[in-house]
Amino acid sequence: MAVVVMKFGGTSVANIERIRNVARHVKREADAGNSVAVVVSAMAGTTNQLVEWVREASAMHDAREYDAVVASGEQVTAGLLAIVLQGIGIPARSWQGWQIPISTNQAHGAARIEAIDGSEIKSRFADGEVAVITGFQGREPQRNRIATLGRGGSDTSAVAIAIALDAEVCDIYTDVDGIYTTDPRVVPKARRLSKIAYEEMLEMASLGSKVLQTRSVELAMVHGMRTRVLSSFAEPESIQPVRAGMKDNTVGTIVCDEDEIVEAQVVSGIAYAKDEAKVTILGVADKPGVAATVFGPLAAANIDVDMIVQNLSSDGKRTDMTFTVEATQLDKALAVLEGARDDIRYRELNSSADVVKVSVIGIGMRSHAGVAAKMFEALAEKSINILAITTSEIKISVLIHSEYAELAVRTLHSVYGLDGD
Amino acid sequence: MAVVVMKFGGTSVANIERIRNVARHVKREADAGNSVAVVVSAMAGTTNQLVEWVREASAMHDAREYDAVVASGEQVTAGLLAIVLQGIGIPARSWQGWQIPISTNQAHGAARIEAIDGSEIKSRFADGEVAVITGFQGREPQRNRIATLGRGGSDTSAVAIAIALDAEVCDIYTDVDGIYTTDPRVVPKARRLSKIAYEEMLEMASLGSKVLQTRSVELAMVHGMRTRVLSSFAEPESIQPVRAGMKDNTVGTIVCDEDEIVEAQVVSGIAYAKDEAKVTILGVADKPGVAATVFGPLAAANIDVDMIVQNLSSDGKRTDMTFTVEATQLDKALAVLEGARDDIRYRELNSSADVVKVSVIGIGMRSHAGVAAKMFEALAEKSINILAITTSEIKISVLIHSEYAELAVRTLHSVYGLDGD
User: Which fold has domain B264-421?
Assistant: First the structure.
């Protein structure tokens, strides 16, 4: 017997029929003798409608009222799932964030969970009662108001609740059946990973693999909460119930500590992100302090800069700088740089949104040399020009022209031995 | 300056445009220096959708979960109205029942309010903050769960909150502009009443004039809370703001203590109810205890019996009984009576849903004789046969064939001098 937290997103609870399907997943775990807490999102479309009403009400809305409105969606789902569970003979009750309580800080709309009192829910596990919990929200205790965690926050709710309840695993049910070595739409030979390390998942998530919210993975990593991604559309009875101490995994992908991954690949996956734009500043002075004149104003305008390349100057006086920003922030970035032209004193400013960042990710890189060289060679062989490079301990990213995106991903997937049958 | 409670129903907050109109009503009161608490229902249609989902989830649903689901509708409206108010420069915050708290008993789905802590809201009045409160719901403290008051419960919420806040008046904004002497669709000469006594309103409300929920009027009567019915669709700026001690009334209808109604009419209004059905039991024994054999089983089956007429027996042995039940309960009542035939020992059972109850209502009746006689004469003159009669201190009701309903109402409206110009 184990404590299991199961989280279901909006498409998994989009209507009563799908909620009945969710109930069958819960029944499987309850029937196996597990203690179950279910975390639910709002029915698909609901949150968008609520957000639309809020925007229509006022462009400059109070974040606390926004939270009061949008938090209602999960409350509906939680009550409905509790009713469906009771209807098939499983004792259940719904819990809203303020009832548990799940305490948050005051950052309404993007609140962080500060504490969860799991005692009452745990004591009801003894009676076989399933807890159905509203995701995405908690209570800010100073003002006694509902605070939401931001879009996608239900993943974070689920992991935090799993930690508070000492769960065996936090199962995140989604519309995909796991984490793949790369996007299967680009590379049909992409394989589902049985396990992936927290650090790798963080790199995957922040690079556009939108299966798990980044914050939830960070939280899981800090507390060592094993988090599994699996499909809610799978036949509920086809999945093995969770067992205490279970280390093997037949469905989905478990995000876990790297120690649990016995034979780690050097590279676990290839990610790509199309939402970057490149900015190049030509002819700036090649002297100390020039970077500050460029990146200071951008930081002040809340523009995140990602990859930075400063070319070697040919004459020791003038040089060029290239960096990337989010494509949605490109216009703003250009405006800031034009405004700061007198301080930076550059000759020319140009930009392109026609770029893509491709990354190879793997904890095995730490102990293997030559991973980067292999990447550069493979790309050179296909005549793909590298515009910028960044690296971390477990990741190498290159910026290339968008037209080569698929070719690059496919090539690297093959080069690092990730192709399945 | 006064404390004002304003309640807006579902059609008055059906979309953002209407919510903006509500905000203008609130602004009028706030601009006049009044302290304002607004009580809102769910947007029209929302509660029906939520109830439908609950029914689809399970026919036998847990009332606590039903409450958790359906209470979400008012939470959305309260947040949206607070946002719209802030957008036009009026400090406002939304309050859910559990935040105030509004404490209820454990009768989920039909809970009664037991206590309201108005202290925090009152203290914020000093800063000019408008309180926007979810109607229809509170918190059941033992289990810390949301409890709803039943359909139409927002009127009761508003009156209870007005009492807790020592409000000058509880203004109920609806889609009609007040209480009329009778249904204007039947009698075009019907007049809007400027004032009506609580007792009269109770008789009007329970007789099918569905403007105010009966429980809210009872509550207002017990606590002497003046309650005004007025139209939310009136031009907000055309209405005079509330003033402390204001006794005159230019819009809507004030439901108040009869002492406040200086020149009470003998009859204030004519009500009719079409949802009654008549049951006649022929040839029952004319002896003590027979009524118990009839009405005992009906009471046990939760069937409310309204008008009862027992004919004089011609031979002292056998008699006939006539009574009315709600038309929706007729089939059930007949089944109960057929099941109890051996105990009651009647000759024949027949029924008709083709009847209507017409009532004349007025606190002035108490001090005027001959009101009933005038009614019977007027109906006789039109050859309208009376099937049953009931009377109370301030009401006389007759049961007649439905085909005479409009004629009877029109005749009585005229006879008692209620016709306007």
Answer: VC0802-like (3.30.2130)
**Confidence category of residue B208, pLDDT binned at 50, 70, 90:** low
pLDDT exceeds 90 at position A285: no
Show the tokens assigned to A93.
Answer: 């009750």
Among B61, B83, B144, select the one facing A58 at the smallest CB separation: B83
CA–CA min distance B156, chain A (Å): 23
Q: What is the mean pLDDT of residues A196-208?
A: 84
Best CA proximity match to A319, nearest among A294, A342, A285: A285
Minimal Cα distance from A72: which residue of B? B72
B contact set with A (CB within 8 A): 16, 19, 50, 53-54, 56-58, 60-62, 64-69, 71-73, 75-76, 78-80, 82-84, 86-87, 93-94, 96, 98-99, 144-146
- Quote the pTM value: 0.87
Identify the architecture of domain A3-258 in CATH. 3-Layer(aba) Sandwich (3.40)
pLDDT in tens, B4-26: 999 999 999 999 999 999 999 99
Give the HSE-up count for residue A249: Cα atoms under 13 Å, Cβ half-sphere.
Answer: 23
d(CA A44, CA A12): 8
Tell me how long chain B is.
421
What is the chain B residue with the closest CA to A49?
Answer: B76
- Residue in chain A nearest B18 by alpha carbon: A57
Residues of chain A neighbouring B87 (CB-CB closer than 8 A): 57-58, 60-61
Q: Report CA torsion sign: B170, B175, B177, B180.
A: negative
| Packing angle, helices A63-70 and B72-87, rounded to 10 | 160
Ranges of each domain in chain A: 3-258, 264-421
- Do residues B242 and B34 lie in contact, with contact meaning Cβ atoms separated by under 8 Å? yes
DSSP 3-state assignment of B263? coil
How would residue A270 be classed by pLDDT, with cut points 50, 70 and 90? very high
